[in-house]
Write a structure and sequence with these properties.
The complex is a heterodimer of chains A (about 120) and B (about 110).
Chain A lengths: L3 E4 L2 E4 L5 E7 L6 E7 L5 E8 L5 E2 L8 E7 L2 E6 L8 E7 L8 E2 L3 E5 L1
Parallel strand pairs in A: 2-11
Antiparallel strand pairs in A: 1-3, 3-8, 4-5, 4-9, 5-6, 7-8, 9-10, 9-11
Chain B lengths: L3 E3 L2 E5 L4 E7 L6 E7 L5 E8 L4 E4 L2 E6 L4 E6 L8 E8 L8 E2 L3 E6 L1
Parallel strand pairs in B: 2-11
Antiparallel strand pairs in B: 1-3, 3-8, 4-5, 4-9, 6-7, 7-8, 9-10, 9-11
């Protein structure tokens, strides 16, 4: 089945650091990938839609200069949390699906802890 | 926009059936999904149903969809302790690029 790989799985870093998270579709191509954020014991909230070869579409309230998204190839999207602060600490999860109406498959998530 | 609601907790005994319920508001949602999340892990797709279907069965899992009431349920037969996790209901709004709207998740606890 479709596999989505996310890396790293856990990051701990100091405030002010920028952190890059990678999301790869391993056995299919994805023109669109999605980035979600999940706070402890809460649901997933869509942050942005990553479009291959074009700018990402951000949800209302998500700072595009804070959360930089790059989708340079059909199998890779990256999310960079710039100048991270403790309030950015969260679980970030990406998803992708093969073309058409195939279901979304999720990466294993990245737990980001900013000290 | 779409809003997805589900009960937060469910506790059952091992061997019993579990039924997790979910409601949604957008009647144009095309697909409805059930995902499982274990502690510290990502989301595992369990099953999904297209909006023109009433029921889908896959081994121990049965999904029922009442489109009129916008109600979705997931039944797990012969629930095992390994089924303990958080189960998310999600809807794909009509016209979306594929992004999903999630419920808050139902924490299923299975007691031996």
């Amino acid at each position: 089945g479709a596999v989505v790989s996310q890396h790293p799985s856990w990051v701990i870093c100091k405030s002010g650091t920028s952190v890059k998270i990678e999301c790869r579709s391993l056995d299919f191509q994805a023109t669109t990938m999605f980035w979600y954020r999940q706070f402890p014991k809460q649901s997933l909230m869509l942050m942005a839609t990553s479009n291959e070869g074009s700018k990402a579409t951000y949800e209302q309230g998500v700072e595009k200069d804070k959360f930089l998204i790059n989708h340079a190839s059909l199998t890779l999207s990256t999310l960079t949390v710039t100048s991270a602060h403790p309030e950015d600490s969260s679980f970030y999860i990406c998803s992708a699906s093969p073309e058409g109406d195939q279901p979304q498959h999720f990466g294993d998530g990245t737990r980001l802890s900013i000290l | 926009g779409e809003d997805v609601e589900q009960s937060l907790f469910l506790s059952v005994r091992e061997g019993d059936s579990s039924v997790i319920n979910c409601t949604y508001t957008d009647s144009s949602s095309t697909y409805l999904y059930w995902y499982k999340q274990e502690p510290g892990a990502g989301l595992q797709l369990l099953t999904y149903i297209f909006s023109n279907m009433d029921m889908k069965q896959d081994q121990r899992l049965t999904v029922l969809l009442n489109k009129k009431d916008k109600h979705l349920s997931l039944r797990i037969a012969d629930t095992q302790t390994g089924d303990s996790a958080i189960y998310f209901c999600a809807a794909r709004p009509g016209g979306s690029q594929g992004n999903l709207i999630f419920g808050k998740g139902t924490k299923l606890s299975v007691k031996p």
